Every structure is written in structure tokens, then in C-alpha cells.
């Protein structure tokens, strides 16, 4: 079988093509079958050859169209020819004007001079014929030896060639010969891009040069106008942005010389430029576009060393200027404010004003994007490098080096390592840093002393001190029998300026402590009403945050801050100052006395040797107690200053929160309850909260989050039960059209629903038993307390009096056979009729609600709510035998209820918080801030291994801590989180919510029991049986004076 052959179609071109470039306008294709197909693909680009076209072609390239069979010219070639013709006309006109001006100038110089002696002689005007040559002719080089340049108008700036009135102009040649040479050059231009025309390419005497043309030629070929072969050009012509747009590309390797003629009033001067780089510079100046940039780009490639030398000279001058003395440069300010308030932005602005070129050069080494993104890693690196460089030039530019040295000292860097880094300019020497820190010791309390001076003169602005023990164990490098672990006990003190100013004349008088009974130390009816309003807010916020439907309805309109009397001031930042570490072990009374004497001398406002007003001294319960013990030890001194009565100790709120949670933990948490669904330990295992372990004081925040998770879940369960729903995914039947209600009406509906829940959980009769017992003088708990008369205990049956209550008890027991009846124990049969799980959950919910109410009060800066909470804590502390914090709650209630004057009581209530960052919900308790400061200070003492060295440099640590925090903020250093995967609080609440709904934990089902008997509650009321021993504790510790608030030993 014969193979099938496929022939390729042949293409036959017609004679219809462009006269210049030879582009075919139509062609004929012959198929394998012999069929002819005529295709006119380029006919839309064809133009007819008119008489004007023939004249233009003859002028430009001296072409005879009779010898060619072309029938048209393409659009691009026609546009190119027209543009060249226009330029030739402009050149001829410009040269003619130049020759005419020179002729007039010569005639003017030959006129009669006024300095001639003959004043009557008429001046003889010498007029020369235009054909007379006024200056010697210069032999022009041939077209092959002379590199010519087209003098043309560019863009909108007009003709580049100017009149010779002292300005510079470029002369290529004169007369018609210049036009002919230009035509020849243009012909070479066309010939270089038209190699397919043999008739034209064989013309002799064509200079080997390609000259760029003007941007008036809007649609020229890329090969004619692009500076680089193959580079795309705009449709309207080439865009001139830099010197590269005017580059001349010679055909041959040899660069042609350039003739430059400069005209002056007295004559002219012609120079032949043969250096190719100088020729490029002349052309850049000639085109008058981006001249400076073009010259710089040429020098960058041709004279790099000189270019860099002049750039270095510029940088040198700038650095000399900014490093001069008294220049107010950021790096030369070594004052406390200059170092502690140093910022990259400040340095950046100074460099932009004083050394912009230096900044640009260094920035180009770091990043290619100029200007640099601010702030960024590159930004910090560039400025840090400049800081080290300028420190090498000027030893006084050490602001950044001081800050780096403080960071290294804070991290425990050895002095030898700091010296090594100081040699490189990273920091200053360690001795220099130490000297600077020692000179700043007066800055620690400078602001406090200013307030003290005004306070002594009657000003209303006040401050308070807060302190806490600072303990650290130093493990020796080599342990021996004599070199064992050292336990160091110091005392850290801060001063806080009161945010809310209370004047002495403000406030209403309060009753005295003598008129207060035990009932005044537990919640009253008004306190319960206030608690219900506060818990309504907390329950509503919990429902909104954990139920999606409620979040969509109320998330944007429900307030996040519960308004109180000082809400406007709660968002203000406070001013607090660390006073350093003191050599004081608070467990030793002698050390506390010495500490208080030093602080009294320096910070208690005095006038004529008398105390103007007492200063509050806050801390935990141990600090509160030890200050009172020290005052008791000095009670026999002559003056109030010597008796240390310049300070009034008080208990702070962070330790109250921690100890209240410990009390809740004692009542509700046990590791043996893991089998009992609904208990706190069961949910600890369910949520895999492995950080909840050990004592509460060591894992406070983990325990708090676990209890708050259960609280939020119970809030959601109670809210769903309000609508008789048993699933967290059920749709809550809200009123129809509630979205169209006013915001106040929507909030009122939600608050009403949550208020009903709170009133069911916290009814007024919740404290009825406690109130009835404390108010009943005949109750057995009040039997011994009511017998006090004139600090003695009187017998109920005779006139015998005793100093101690134990003596009275023995007297009545032996003489009058008084035997107080024992409490009746609840039988097991009654316990079986109760729902132990429901009682447990309700009791935990009530206690956790009280804790969260206190915690939110601290966050929101509500001092009145914080102080009122002490009345709710007192019964729980009594029930769990937390005696010290029971005493603290009694003291706090007594101080604000009659022990202190009215204005001091208001100061104690209003100024219990620190706000570092601002915001109404960002307050901290005073002792929590001290705990944070203790942790930071311990980190700053890594390089010290003895107590003496720590005490010697104790006033330096606050500055180091401040410097590191400022450095972190300046460089945007963020602390790493302690979790590999952050837990989702909402998901944990949902897990507990689903489990509570599945076991119906909040429904009363009699007979339901718990396996772990240690957490079984006697009832759902955690305040039941809290009255045992409470009246005696209140009577024993109720203070009559704000000082020496120790117990009555007779009780």
C-alpha cells in the first residue's frame, strides 16, 4: 500500500509591500490541491504614496521611487519619516537664527565709543555684509568622524537650543551642510533598521551611529526607540525617566567625539569631547531631564571610588553636626528621663532632621525598601547599628549603651562579659552602669516627697505605702556542711499616689465603734439588695458570653462595666513608685520597728514635730499584724511619731481573694470525689485541667478558672431552666420583635430574667439564721459576750466580776451549775431525705458568685463593693477556721464603720487599686502589683549570691526592672505563653453545661447522695452553722483605735 504523503502549503508573496520596511500587505497561499487563497492580513496598515510622501522620502534618504515596485507605505514608516522631516526643519530654523544674532552682535561692538576725545564727530557705523565671516572658520570633521546630535524640542519644554546670551548652546555645524549631515545620519538610522532593502543599504558614507529621537513620535518601532533591544515601549512613545532613556548605542566599538561650543558675550569656545563617559554627561545635561540623577548614575558606574568618597564626606559632616556637645541629640541625653524615656521614634526623627543621608545609607544596608517600614525588625537593626557607630565617634553618645547595659545586668550578665561587649560598643562598662544607677536613687521617691511637702502645707493630694515580704533561696555552687542554702528575707515597699482626692471637710460623720454590735459585721438587708443587683449583672454577662443566641441579641448593647460612684476615675492611670528593698524580716518585730522608724522619718507628713495626717500602709494579713505588733511594742513612747502612729495598717484585696478561694476549696474540693459527677474535682478531670493541683496559693489562677467555669455553666443551666429548656442548643423563646425594641427595654428584659434567678439563689432569708443568732442576747453564743461591763466579765447570778472570761465560766459552772447545752446533731435519716448533689452545686454556686463579685469589683475599681464583700466573707472564714482573715475582715469593716474619721474612711475605700494601662476594667489590687514587682525584682538579682550584695544594690533593682519593661515596650518584645495550646474557655463551659443538663444536677431529687462524704454540705445554704463562736471573735477583735488593733486578751 502506497504511503500517504502530505505536502506543505506554499506561500507566494505579491508585490504589494511597504516602500521602506518591505512589510507585505497581502499574500497568496497555494494548498496541496493547487487551490490559491489570497489573504489581505495587513491591508489596514497600508497608506498610499502621495506626492508629499515622495518629497519627504527624497529629502530624508534621497530615495528614488521609480526604481521600486512597491505600491504603498506602512503607517509606522510614514510616521517615522514625518517626524524626521519636522526635526530637520527645526534644526535649519535654529541655525539661521543663531547666525543672524551673531551678525548683530558684531555690528554693535564696532560702534563709536563714548570715551573718544572728539565729542562732535558723528559716530561712523560699520556695517558688514551678511556674507562677511566674523570669526575664523573651523574645519568640520567628516560625518564618519563627528558624532552628531539632533537638536529638537522635547516634550512641553520647547527648544533645547537657547540664544547665545551667556547661556550654553551646542553647535553641530552651520549652513545647509549641517542639514545634509543630519539627513545622512537619519538615513543611517533607517538603514540600520531596514536590512531587507538592498538598494538603500548600499548607499555610501553613512555614519555608524544610532541617535535617539523625540517622544513626539508616538508610535515608532521598539527597535528604533527602545534604549535596550527588545524592551517594550509605550504606545505614545518612550517615557523618559532617567539617563538610560537617552543612551546612545554605537554600532562600532569606537566612540565618536562630541563637539561642544559655548557662546559668551565676548566670543565663543569650542571643545571636542572624546571621553565616552564625559559624552554621556554632556548629553544628560543637553536633554535637561533628570540631570542630577543621570549624572549620579554615570558617576556610580565610572567613578565609584570618588563617588563613595564624596558620599563619605557628606556622612562625616552630618555625624559631626549631630555629635556636637549640647546638640540635644537623642543618643547624648544621659539623664534619667533621657534613658528611661528613650524611643526609636525619637532617634529616628533626630536622624531625619540632622543626618538624613546617613540614615538612608545605613538603611540601604538592611533593606531594599526605602524608607523602611516603621516599626519593623529592619528598622530596629538599622537604628541600633547607627547607635553603636555614633558611640564610636563620640563617647558621650551612650544613651542606647546605658539601656543595653541595664538589660544585661537585669539578666545576670557577669561584669567580665559586659566588658567584652563594651569593647564592641554594645554597652558601657558595668562600673559605669552601677555609678549611673546609684546616682538615680533619689529618683525613686522624688515625686512622693513633692506630694509630702504639699501635704504638710494643707494640700488634699495624698499617697499611701504598700509592702510585702521578699524571700529568696540562694543555692550554693558547691554545697558543703558550712556552705548550705541561704534563705534571704527582705521587704519590698512601693508608694502610690491616691487617684481620688478626698478633702477633709467632705463626708458625713459615722457612728463610733462602741455602738457597733456583732450584727453590724454581717450582711444587712441593704447589703443583700446591693448584692442581688451586682450578681444580676454577673449572671447576665455570663449568659451573653456563653449562649450564642443571647450574644447575638445583647452582645453589643449590654455594658461591660457596672457603674459605681467612682466609675469616672476608675479608668485613670495611677502613679506608683518602687522604693526598693529594705533589710527587714517581717517575722521579727525589731526589724519591723526599725523599718517603720525609717519610713516615718521620710514619708510621714509632719509639721512642728507633730503628725499632720496618718499614711495608710497596706499589705497582706501578716504585714498588717506585724505593723500592729510593732506599734504595740512602742505604745509607751512619748510622742505619736515615736509610737509609730504615723501609719495605719490595712489588709489588701489580692490576698483576700486568694484566702477566700482557699475557704471555698476547703468546703467543696476533694480528690476522692472523682467518681461523683457534678463535683469540682470531677470537672477538673473532665476538662483535663492538670494545672489545678496542690495548694490554692500555689495555683490560684488555675483554681479560679476552674470554679468560674462551673459558675458560668450553672448560670446557663438556670437560665435555660427558666424557659423550661433542657438543651444548650435549644432556641430561647424571647419576645417577638425584641430586636425592634429600644436598647433600654431589651436590657430591662434580660435583667428581669437574670434578677429572678439571683433572687431565687440569694433570697433575703439566706442570712436570717445568722442575723437572728447574733441579734438574740439570750442565745448561748451571746451568753458570755453580753456580760462585759467596764472591761470585766460580770456573773449572771451574783456580783462577782472577773478579768478573763475563762474565770467567769469556771465560776458559774462550779458555783451556779451552769452547763451550756450541746448542739443537736442532725440524724442520718434526715440526711437521706435531702439531695446532696443539688445542695453541693447550689452551695458552690453561691460561694463562687461571692468570689467573682469581689474579683470583678477589684477589676472595675469599685471600692465600696470591695469593702462590703468583707461582711459576706466573715461567716465563711469563721466556718473554715481561717482566723487571721476573719480578723482582717472584722478590722476592715470596723475601719470604714467608725474607727477612722469620715475623710480617711473614704480614702481607704476609694484608693485601693492600681491601674497601669488605663481602662475602667483594668484595675489591680495594690498587693497584687507588689507581688508582680517581687517576681520582677527576683529576676533582676540573678547575678547576686549573698544577702549583703543584694542589700547594697537594693535601690538599683527598681531602675533595672523599669529599664527592661521600657525596653520591651520600645522593641515590642512579647512574652511567650505558657501553654502549647491555649484552652478555650467557652468550650469548657459548654462541656460542663452539657454534663449538668444530662445529670439534672440543679433539680431537687431527694435521696441522691455523694460517695465522697468529706464534701457533703449540711444544706444548700453555706452560711448555716456559721454563727458558732462568731460573736466572741467579733467582740475580741473589734478595734477601738486604728493603731494596735490586737485582740482583747481578756476574751
Automatic annotation (TrEMBL):
The keyword Zinc-finger applies. PROSITE patterns: ZINC_FINGER_C2H2_1, ZINC_FINGER_C2H2_2. This is C2H2-type domain-containing protein. Pfam families: DUF6589 (PF20231). Residues 793-821 form the C2H2-type domain. It comes from the Eukaryota. Keywords: Metal-binding, Zinc, Zinc-finger. InterPro entries: DUF6589, Znf_C2H2_type.
